[in-house]
Amino acid sequence: MQPNDVRGFFADWASLDAEDYLLLEYYFECSGEPELAAAHLCSEQSTAQWKRVGIDEDYRPQFAAKVIDLKITAHLPEPSYSLQPEVRGAMTACQVRIAHPHRNFGPRLPNLISAVLGEGAFFAPGIPIVKLLDIHFPPSFLSAFQGPQFGIDGLRQLLKVYDRPIFFGVIKPNIGLAPAPFAELAHQAWCGGLDIAKDDEMLADPDWSPLAERAQLLGRARVAAEQATGVPKLYLANITDEVDQLTRLHDAAVANGANAVLVNALPVGLSAVRMLRRHATVPLIAHFPFIAAATRLPCYGVHSRVFTRLQRLAGFDAIIMPGFGPRMMTSEAEVLDNIAACLDPNFGDIKPSLPVPGGSDSAATLEHVYHTIGHVNFGFVPGRGVFGHPHGPRGGAASLQQAWAVLATGQSLNPPPADLPAELAAALQTFGSH
Amino acid sequence: MQPNDVRGFFADWASLDAEDYLLLEYYFECSGEPELAAAHLCSEQSTAQWKRVGIDEDYRPQFAAKVIDLKITAHLPEPSYSLQPEVRGAMTACQVRIAHPHRNFGPRLPNLISAVLGEGAFFAPGIPIVKLLDIHFPPSFLSAFQGPQFGIDGLRQLLKVYDRPIFFGVIKPNIGLAPAPFAELAHQAWCGGLDIAKDDEMLADPDWSPLAERAQLLGRARVAAEQATGVPKLYLANITDEVDQLTRLHDAAVANGANAVLVNALPVGLSAVRMLRRHATVPLIAHFPFIAAATRLPCYGVHSRVFTRLQRLAGFDAIIMPGFGPRMMTSEAEVLDNIAACLDPNFGDIKPSLPVPGGSDSAATLEHVYHTIGHVNFGFVPGRGVFGHPHGPRGGAASLQQAWAVLATGQSLNPPPADLPAELAAALQTFGSH
């Protein structure tokens, strides 16, 4: 790129029609001039060659991604990460906002991902270190998407739970356990007060636990628990499988008694989820395998909230995400960013998704999670905290409701009040040193 | 996990039936005991809780992933990368081989990805830094997959090109250019000697270049070029789109005159590609957006050859990958690893995929690429090297054939022999300083 060409990739945001552009925020480290590097980042993700040889034309005004803001944030003696092949010497750390014209590809998730996380982002000349920090969509783009069918309000109506977090539980053990004892564990947990008993994200449709049989037994157990407790329950069946099986498995799970389905979003693909959303009659819940492979490092890859926004766009009613606590190796700020992305009111007519931050939770962590989030619009998803409770799943689920009963009155569990119910006392003792 | 439990996640490889297990190689850095960390890595990706509370049972013998080899490779004063939340202090770097029982999920790509790149890999207690280095499948697992329909031999038969690299070219410009002039560029390149004129991976089905119209004009231009040159040509149409559009777009592209289709593998999803493979009548070619987000760092994420193996498994006949040269920020060793994964004979009955290492190539880089690979079973995919050639696309394509004519006789272009054809001389002059 010639110095003269750089200007073609810069624009004044006020001069552009906001409805025509996605807004992208990247962090990057470059060895040369930041303006040239930022222009390359734009060029490579849009009009890399903007004219034919020998013809006087320029596709940039309509089709180029354009820098609308560029800040130098630091001067570094070396790149933040050592790379192969080696990149040595001083780097300039920058933050850039780019307006990307969505007319280049339209409201299609695979093409969107290709544009903002493709060769343009990761192979722009002079930019070995780059991270997509956030993405914003104009209403004209969002309006092409259905988003969640139920959303938070819809989930609450299904469960008739309006004033507290929604209690999920990951049925454990799962890998290797046959459907009948698996259903019995769920039944106990529902009777103890769990709202949603869920399959582990690793539990598929294997011969030792066929989905149809599992859904049938869990569906019966669910109805029995609903009759015993008088309140609605959800069985969240994992239908993660090959894309061409998703609608069949959705139908089989629902016909047999599941009333929500889990999909591992990235492994299946967000576009396949969007396809499933058109067909689904029950809530879709996302799980997060693979995402951390691209999101953990502070200066490289993509911020996890980008995937949260895309999962909401694809139509998930609830999004399970790495939560608080040292086990999940995710900063409190990042968890809160993801929760905010689920709830962001600036998302067209698309409903919010229920954020479900998870990881080694139990009655002993509920207070911290609740106070850190600051409101009740979240799902809480213990595994061992319910199914590894010393009194069994019924006691584990009861301990969550008991913990909430304390917190709902404004009291703290740290230290706990006198005369705790036995299940809550056992949970605090077993899981509290975590 | 209690010290006693660790042993349940170790096994002697000779005692296992190799047909029942995937073999995984991970690099990781841990703060505590390597044996405990490796056991957690296995536990979290399989039987995290292997028994019910109060019942004497153990699902590990049949269902646990098991360490079969653990080596300490270095003692580090700090983790290789600074993280948020911070992890400080000495780390032990390890390499581990794990046998993962595929009965846990069966021959399903999304469940495979969830198992080996999910919560198990990235959230194992004590392992903040981890990279999946490689994966090996037993024949019993591979036999469930179709793999490539054409493979290298099939592509060569379609093109009647048997003894040299296959010459692809990315038609440029593309974003913003209408189908008629776009077809004219391709026609010139085919007539100059290009085998496969391809859409850019960013070129979808937008209103300014509808796929059906583009395929029709390119199809006509292709037939005209075949008649003019007397040899078969391929038009590689990018059908990357929402999953529920893939078969429709495949059919529209093929009916109108495309005879190969491009899919951005990760953005669309490997499982959707496997679905398309069942339907496709023409070669499927992969492009690599998003992959670098998880593969660039030497010690974190996943090695790109894992995705190459999975793309071959999903059925791609050719796999475009970051190639040689500084622009692609990929080590020569990594490119060669990916080429080897395409060709690996130890892959059941699944055909090899044509490796297509790309990035800023031209007649000036062909010699280095050819000699580094060491044989002719690769695709060569210039963009500007053909379509930005000073003599136009016909000259750019001719320069590739002319360069090959020199190399095929065992001569070098560095320095070039006397009496070079004009197109090749111009290519070396324009692109040779790269």
Automatic annotation (TrEMBL), chains A, B:
Origin: domain of life: Bacteria
GO biological process per UniProt: carbon fixation
Domain Ribulose bisphosphate carboxylase large subunit C-terminal: 151-431
GO molecular function, one term: magnesium ion binding
Domain Ribulose bisphosphate carboxylase large subunit ferrodoxin-like N-terminal: 20-140
Signal sequence segment: none
Membership in a protein family: Belongs to the RuBisCO large chain family.
Protein name: Ribulose 1,5-bisphosphate carboxylase
